[in-house]
Specification:
- The protein has a single domain, classed as Arc Repressor Mutant, subunit A (Orthogonal Bundle).
- It has four helices and three strands; from the N terminus they run αβααββα.
- The protein has a three-stranded antiparallel beta sheet with strand order 1-3-2.
- The two termini are 18 Å apart.
């Protein structure tokens, strides 16, 4: 829970599961999260090794994030958690 338990971390991983996503697109997909919050969570996740940051352009700055193999392994846990909540209506 220490690794995945922070607010928005699971949602960020879920949005990165299929392909790399640019920062602004990720913020739009997360709706209720501020850019500051998304940035903070991504930095934490990058330090742990769940996601990788890629600089696409320096002028203007553009970055994308992609899930790492370690992050992809966490998706199994999230999927089981999703099934558990659906089964028990939590």
């Amino acid at each position: 829970m220490r690794i995945l338990g922070g607010k928005w971390k699971a949602s960020i991983l879920w949005h990165l599961k299929d392909e790399p996503v640019r920062f602004n697109d990720l913020c739009r997909q997360l709706g209720g999260a501020s850019k500051k919050m998304v940035d903070q969570r991504l930095k934490e996740m990058e330090e742990i090794g769940l996601v990788r940051r890629n600089v696409l352009s320096t002028r203007p700055i553009a970055v994308s994030y992609e899930i790492t193999e370690f992050g992809r392994s966490a998706l199994c846990v999230l999927e089981e958690l999703k099934e558990w909540t659906e089964k028990y209506g939590v």
